[in-house]
Amino acid sequence: MTIFDSIILGIVEGITEFLPISSTGHLIVTSRFLEIPVTEFTKSFEIFIQFGAILAVVFYYRNSIFRTVDTWKKVLAAFIPTAILGLLLYPFVKMYLLGNIYIVTISLIVGGIILVIFELWQEPRRKDESHMYKTVAEVPYVSAIIIGTAQVIAVIPGVSRSATTIISGELLSLSRKAVVEFSFLLAIPTMLAATSLDMLRSGWSFSSYEVSLLAVGFVVSFFVALVVITWLLKYIEKHSFIAFGMYRIIAGLVFFYLFF
Fold it and tell me: Which of 18, 40, 87, 219 is the most buried (most CB within 10 A)?
C-alpha cells in the first residue's frame, strides 16, 4: 500500500461511512481496484480509518454532544447488544468476511433491493409524522436495544451499518432526521470499540511507514466525512433513500460483472 492508496481509501471511507451503501464493502472493492493485497494490516487499516470518519460526528456535534444525557442513555442502550455480539463475531468476521468481494457484491444487490422496497412502502407513513419520535432522546429503551441488535447484521461486508439502523429505526417510528442522527451517534461507541479491539489484538505491531499510512487515511476520512455529514442532513429534508438503494443495486451488478 502506498500513500496514494491511503488517500483514496480515506476519501472512499469518508464518503460512504454514513450513507446506506456500506463503507466496508466499498473499501474492499476499492482495494481490489488498486490491487492492494489483503493482509492483516489492510484489514486493520480499514477499521482504523472508519474511526476517523466517526470523529467527524464528534466534531460536528461538538457543541451539544455531551449535554444530551437522555440521548446518550438511548445510544448506549443500543450499543450493548452491538458490543456483545460484535465481540463474539469479531474473530470470524476478520478472518473470513473482511476482504471477501463475493459477499460484498451479493450484499450490495440484496440490500439495495430491500432498501428501495422499504422506502416505497414507508413513504405514505411519513406524510403524518405525529406518531414518530422526533429526537433520539424520545426513543424508548426497548426500541433502542432492537436497533442496536439489528445493527449487528452489518458485520457482513456490504450490508451497511447505516442502512440497518435506518430501516430498523423507521420501522420503530423514528423520524428520518432522528434515525439518521441515531446512526451518527451510535457509530461513535461502535467504531471506538471496534478500533480499540483491533488495535489491542494487533498489539499495534506496525512499522513507522504503516503508521504513516494509518495517519493519512485517518485524517482524510475525517475531513471528507465532515462534508458528507453536513450534506446528508440537508439531503434527507426533501429526499428519500431510494437513490442509495438504486445505487447499491447498480454498483453490485457492475462489481459482479467486473470481478466474476
Answer: 18
